[in-house]
Each structure stands twice: as C-alpha cells, then as structure tokens.
Design a protein that fits this description.
Layout: E1 2-4, H1 7-16, E2 22-27, H2 33-45, E3 48-53, H3 73-82, E4 87-89, H4 93-96, H5 111-114, H6 118-121, H7 125-140, E5 144-148, H8 152-164, E6 170-174, H9 195-217, E7 222-223, H10 224-242, E8 247-256, E9 265-266, E10 270-278, E11 281-288
Parallel strand pairs: 1-4, 2-3, 2-5, 3-4, 5-6
Antiparallel strand pairs: 7-9, 8-10, 10-11
Helix pairs in contact: 7-8, 9-10
The chain binds adenosine monophosphate.
Residues 27-28, 34-35, 37-38, 147-148, 150-151, 174, 176-177, 184-187 line the site of adenosine monophosphate.
C-alpha cells in the first residue's frame, strides 16, 4: 500500500494508475469498521481505492474538539492495509490549504441546507466540509467517492454540491454500521470511556427506533414534531434516572429524505435525525422510517 502526503506524490500515483477507475474514501481517520465498510464498497466499485485521512480544521468550530480529535496514524495505516486499500492520502494542513486557513476560498452550500440541524450548532461546519471535499476531488480526480449515511446531512450537501458544480464524480453511499446493540460506530465513541457513558449514548438509537416502531404501530399518520417530542421526553427522563451521565438533546427532527425539508408526519420516506451531547461528547445518528 502506498502512503502519499503531497500533491507531487499524488500526481505520480495517478499517472501510474493510468486509466484504472479510482474510488476515494474521504475520512478524518481514527478508523473503525464503519470506515471499513465504505472501503469494501469502494473496492467493489473501482479498480483502485485511495483513502484520505485528514482532520480538516475548517470544519471545526472554535470550541470544538479539533485539538483532541484522535489521530492514531500507525493504527489507521495498518487498518487500510488490512482492508486491501491501494493507497492512503495523508496530507498536512498546508498541503490542502496552501494559501493558509485564513485566505482559503470557501465553498458555501445554500443556507437552507447548511444552517439547520448540525449546522445550527456548528456554524460554518458544512462550508468546511464542502470545501475540503471539493479540494480532495480536484486533487485526486476520483471516478467514485464513498460516503456514509451516518452523516446524512453531510451526504445530502455533498450530493447537492456535485450536482450543482457539475462535478465529474459518482457518489456512493453506505448504510450506517452499528454495534450489535444499535450504537452507530463513530470515531468519537472513543471518548465514551465508562459503561454509563456508553449506555447513555444508546439513548439516541432508542429514540430513533421508538419513532420507527410508533409509525409502524399507528393506523393513522402521526404528527412528526409532537410524536418526536414525546418520545424524547420519555427516553431522556429514563436516561437521567438510570445513569449519572448528562445527555442534552441538540436536535431531533423528521425530514423528507428526498428534499431534506421538515416532514409534517411520520411516514415511509422520512428520515429522523438526532444529535446530542453525551457528557462532553457530541454524537449524531439518523434512521429511515
Ligand atoms: P469521518 O472520519 O467521521 O469524517 O467519516 C468518514 C466517512 O465515514 C463519512 O462518509 C462518514 O459518514 C462515514 N462513517 C462514519 N461512521 C460511519 C458508520 N458508523 N457507518 C457508515 N459510515 C460511517
């Protein structure tokens, strides 16, 4: 497996690969089996697969976990090797931001997509994501790029960007990979150190599956906002009474899958999205009804 860290090495690799089809799996590292599943989908779809590992400063807010975000380089490279990857692109910040972070040209997704849900508590986050993903597309020129449905709003915005900017890349999405009990795999799960923190983190999945169950069990359409509010109240109270770890909901919303606009009722075709602080760890999840 090749490990490249600058644009010259990348160009050399690109020309070695000639006309072979290339799939890119963009990540921030601290790799887990969720990333592994994306890598396998990439492998099935293209002749060469390259994983990028880059903790992108532009998508972190001033009070977020940029500094403490895990960067286990050797472990990550070993995983990519074990997954049969052809190459890893592991750039430093100045390779992707050659004119400096302050002077960077930014891709601004429409506010109607980027200021809601995760964007409401993370201003500028999706501009940071869209910018770095576009840079990776320009530098690597992949035929395919693979993203996880775990970051549903991110996936929606990247799809929008690819369509709007006429980018010559095909996007592939992989369903969320979960632990047996339902907890969505995430690099930030490493921060959940005690069994109580982990148990409290499961509240997100429980709220999502409660919504799914209630929709299936109801004969008439359930109003989205009121139903989700009631479910959250019950599950959050239960968590508070059974664990000392604080959980604070950031949002719980139903959107139409196709448009990402708020859904009035819970019905098939709706996606429920949730974000919460579990202690000091911010977790997100989502589920299709
Ligand atoms: P990250 O390293 O967190 O930026 O994630 C890199 C890619 O992996 C993104 O496309 C994520 O949506 C995807 N991903 C992260 N966790 C999961 C998971 N549990 N299941 C599927 N994809 C995931």
């Amino acid at each position: 497996m090749r490990v490249v860290s600058n644009l010259n090495e990348l160009e050399a690799l690109r020309s070695e690969w000639g006309n072979a089809t290339v799939a890119l799996v963009p990540t921030m590292g601290a790799l887990h089996e969720g990333h592994g599943a994306l890598c396998q989908l990439a492998k099935k779809s293209a002749q060469r697969v390259i994983v990028s590992i880059f903790v992108n400063p532009l998508q972190f807010g001033p009070n977020e976990d940029l500094e403490r975000y895990p960067r286990p380089r050797e472990e990550d490279l070993q995983r990519c090797q074990d997954w049969g990857m052809d190459a890893v692109f592991y750039p430093s910040v100045d390779v992707l931001y050659p004119t400096g972070m302050e002077n960077s040209i930014k891709v601004l997704p429409p506010e109607s997509l980027s200021n809601r849900l995760c964007g409401a508590s993370r201003p500028g986050h999706f501009a940071g994501v869209a910018t770095v993903v576009l840079k990776l597309f320009i530098a690597l020129r992949p035929d395919y790029a693979v993203f996880g449905e775990k970051d549903a709003q991110q996936l929606f915005i990247i799809r929008h960007m690819v369509k709007d900017l006429l980018l010559p890349v095909a996007l592939l999405a992989h369903p969320t990979v979960r632990e047996i009990d339902g907890l969505a795999l995430s690099s930030r799960n490493r921060y959940l150190q005690t069994p109580q923190e982990r148990e409290t983190a499961l509240t997100l999945f429980r709220i999502l599956t409660d919504a799914q169950t209630q929709m299936h069990e109801s004969i008439s359409p359930l109003p989205a906002a009121a139903t989700l509010k009631a479910i959250a109240e019950t599950r959050l109270a239960e968590a508070a009474s059974s664990s000392p770890v604080a959980i604070q909901l950031q949002y719980l919303e139903a959107v139409e899958k196709e448009t990402f606009q708020p859904a009035k009722t819970l019905h098939p075709g709706v996606k429920i999205l949730i974000a919460a602080m579990v202690g000091s760890v911010r977790l997100i999840d989502n589920l299709d009804l």
